[in-house]
Amino acid sequence: MFRRVLLCGRWWVVLLLCVLAVPSPSWSAEKLCLKDGTYQLVSSYEVHGGRVRYYSVERSEWEELPAALVDFDATRRAQEEEKAAAQKKIDEAKEIQQERFEKSPALGMEVAPGLRLPGDDGVFTVEGARVVRMAQSSAEIITDKKRAALALAVPLPVMRGRSLVVLEGAKATVRLSSPQPVFYVQSTDNLGARMVLVRVKAGKEARVVEQVEGARAGIGKGSEVRTAVPVDPKQVGPNLYKLKPLQPLEQGEYALGELVGQKLNLDVWDFGVDKWEVVK
Prior knowledge:
This protein is 23% helix and 41% strand. It is α+β, with helices and mostly antiparallel strands. Mean pLDDT is 80; it is low at 1-27 and 100-105.
């Protein structure tokens, strides 16, 4: 499923760049080349008169040998080759990052004059003169402790337990200024046909996506309570759906999510609508 692949791909590139930038013990070692064609793996070396003092990576201790035995030209060439190889790996990782996240591919449908969707799966919207890839967040289920404690105190099953589906943080990272944004869901499994728009209740440290009511013991069924915002879903191309709210969105927090049966997938695309004004 592409919902986690998008985020995992981004973090993979960042991790790769970090790993390349910070040498590991084997990369930090350098070759101290000798005139007989062999070499010592050292972390550093110093020349003191006719002696070369070096720290051996293999034996983890300082050692010395006559400077006449060291091929300093070959040692410098080996250092330059290792630096060039490491830089090549960093450059290749940067190219991957640029191609994946910065390059503006023209493979998808044109959604505005001069603006096209990328060719890969994702949830997108148009904000001004750019296509915005919506970020995905994972919600978690927490129990309403006060209500749970009260339910335990009552000897008979006369009340339902309640849980809350929440997102971390008071606000979403993605901020939109359009009162009626249009969303494009590009997915090989036609995810757009199952998407819903939910108004999220913001708090100081978290946002409540929905409330989950558990069933009484042996009586009825559980239910999920959420504030859905009506949208007009239309399939506008192969594996591509267009979702447009039927009315302007008020300032606040929202989330797009996949409805599986009657349950909302915990992985959602959250965003906020900031203050906007109607231009007369």
